[in-house]
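In the lab's daily routine, each protein ends up as an entry in a very long ledger. A line of letters takes care of the sequence, but it says nothing directly about the fold. The three-dimensional part falls to structure tokens, numbers that each stand for a local backbone shape. The outcome of that step, for a single protein, is printed below.
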Amino acid sequence: MAHKHDSPSVEESYNFSSGLKKKLLFGGFIGLALVAIGVFLINMGWWGPDGFAGGVHEAAGHGAELAHGAENGHHEATLLNRLIGNLWMNAIYFLGISVIGVFFISYNYVAKAGWYTSFKRVPEAMPAFMIFPSVLILLLIAIPSTRHIIMHWTHEGIMDLGSTNYDAIIASKGWWLNLPFYTFRLVAYFIVWIFLWRQMRKYSLMEDASGSIEDYNSSRKYAKMFLIFFAVTSSTAAWDLSMAVDAHWFSSMFGWYHLSSWHVAGLSAIMLIIVTLKEQGYLKAVNYSAIQDLGKLMFGFSIFWAYVWFSQYFLIFYAHLPEETIYFRERFTGYEGRYFAPFIISLILNFLFPLLILMARESKRNYTFLKLACWAILIGHWFDFYQMLMPSIAKNQGGLGLIELGTTTVFACGFMYVVYSQLSKANMYAKNHPFLEESLLHDI
């Protein structure tokens, strides 16, 4: 039986160097520059809207369309649709990765799990980024011109029986899809998620100083609250943030599908940060067994995502109801087939790659294989959200080019900056956590 003095040192601080800060800020500026260049090239007609996807489609309008596209015929997509679609999609994608940090520590708290404790500070830092996509989402909904681009059901008269814009299907959902109630739900999600994370984070840091079991119990109490609230809001948020952009379409499995995509992307972000930190000389006490167990979760939930994806697809395919199949028709053949490639890329990166890379035991202990799997999953689920949202927002102006690369770079650099900043504010280990020694000596 090992004793406490046999355990590795748990006194470790992360140095968020000024050099790294400058690199991340520079990366953000590069991302903004890529977006600006992409807009300029498309607006001038020098590069079609497909970007890297190729194609001979007409460029996405000029200055007048960009300025007035939202007012002059909301059914006609312009370059503005693509820009707003990228902001909305990346905000939802990175919001999900962030909230999975608190979801991960919550279900481990409630299960009284010990294996993850040595790297607990990584998922604990990730939810700090939630505030930024949350504010952006609320701003996009608050501005009439942008919310009309994202949510067709917000147009004037669409639920009024006597209006020329009347839509009977959308009107039947008016009890749920109305702006006051919709906005209230979004605000409630974000405030409660952030508040409960901040409480868990507060008591976790207090535990470092006091060593009191009461602080651990307080964190666990808030973790229970979060899981109860998230059990409902993970699905309703999926409906509100992603399914509502296709107001005619519905799927009873969409909440599980959306959460599984968020979850495995969040797990991959946790793993990638841990491996990166270990290669930089941090988290020396995190052993291969803990990393392997996290790899098992990545592998298992990649398969679970594929299972839920196939179940949703098969039920819609088998029933063959027009109001359901339209979702997949748009992605297979709609808008000159520009969304078919992202659809297939998502399946390959999110199922085939993790299946082949992470199945073997040793691959979950090999940093090269783990990084390859993490990047495949993170990029794959970016494509998952791309094909989930862009056909309904960007329509025939969607593509893969500098705008997509630049927008994602801005969000990724912002996410890393916030996470590294949080890591630098506390000891790298939850040094007085009651299960820390179990994690340090974890062996499988």
